[in-house]
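Working notes for the structural subgroup meeting. M.R. asked for a predicted model of this chain before we commit to crystallization trials. I am recording the input and output together here so anyone reviewing the notebook later can reproduce the run.

Input as submitted:
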Amino acid sequence: MKLFSKQLLSVLLAFGLVISFSFQKAHAEVVRKPVRAGSFYPADPPELTGMIDRLTHKAQKTPVRIPQNKPLKAIIMPHAGYIYSGWTAAHASLVLKRNQFSKVILLGPDHFIGISNGAICNVAAFETPLGKIKLHNDVVKLRRHPDLFRPLPVSKDKEHSLEVILPFLQTYLGEFQLVPVVVGRADIGRFSDALETIMDRHTLLAVSSDLSHFLTYSEAAALDRETIGAIVNLSPDRLINKDNRACGVMPILILMEIARRHHWQPVLLHYSNSGDTAGSRSRVVGYAAIAFFGDQPMENQLDSNANFTEKQGQVLVKLARQTIMKKLGRKPPASEFDDLDRALPDEDFQSHCGTFVTLKIHGQLRGCIGNLTSTETVWDGIKRNAINAAFHDPRFSPLTDTELDQTEIEVSILTEPRPLEYQKGQDLTKKLRVNVDGVIIRKGHASATFLPQVWEQLPQPEEFLSHLCMKAGLSSDAWKGPELEVLTYQVQYFEEK
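Returned structure, recorded in token form:
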């Protein structure tokens, strides 16, 4: 077990929360400009729009059987020049529609740098000829795992695999926010775990990949048929360590891992190669559009009908701050007060879920109060826990008016805790999902919980469980015995922007 400072250990044991660190943030004015406009696709907006419209019209003629009453979860699209792969990419229009998703996680292969795991361009937005796409705040959460998601300076980002997909997504989805990840040789399990923490029913997971490269037409068609078969049958073993299957094989394998976990159903929308569109048949590149449909919500979604968007999360953060301001006798700005009045009727805010409110000053914990389940609404729970975290946390003195301006607020929305069946301690460590599961332990009258955020400080399950047992007043190895009751839950959490 690693040694922790006395101060850090006491914080972890007392609160089950994490101390957040400062991460490099992109300056608001830094934008990743298009580098392939004018070569892979038109740089002129009307010309680009016209080209996508023509490709879409052609794609709409393809007969495809789309599963009924099953939500779209993910899609694979090709990223070559539009004259070559645009016809296949445009088949995304068969399953995408405007305002369908508010967030897109876009994974594309690394063609130039040679990175390990992933990289995220250190900007505030991506730009195409069709406009800017803001980066989602979940980028900050991923960067808390720098071994998986390192910052990529914009001056070094020449990768086309993400950029080429974006105009299609802008055309079909309208406005959305982006989590752009360039993927190298990756730890598929850990990578998938991290992505699942930021996925919900408002999220599209998009993978950018071409298939085989520079084979003859017949050779490419045969090999690509095998690759597509492996994908739609969710058989990763048929792709691992296989040559010339797909330039985006690592992003595809990550998608397949998540799809297998949640029983998503892949459907081939279209296949072609450059010999079908604008190239010679002596050396072709293969392209496929494959959609993934789900039966149930993601496991880390809320069990109620509510699953909050980033915009809704920021409303709850604002609610917590204004509640504390009023208690201190400060009057919130009239415009913000009106915003909350308009948001109150939202049915998601009237759902019943456990909530936590966490306060920090300069990254140091300043208060945290919450409840694991609730008979009150999320709206009322956030208000009550905001007051309790600020003024009634017995481990801190009441928050002062001066401190409020320095205080960072985070709200967490919890799923209903569910019992976790396991045989023994070693089985327990394998079943817990790092960075995904919040954990409750109970033994007799002793009990304790750690929110999923604690995994950032205690990433090893054995260590996580040992500290959780000590928090409950048990021996550090109590988790190894069979008599411990364990429940897990998941969390959506929102940090104040």
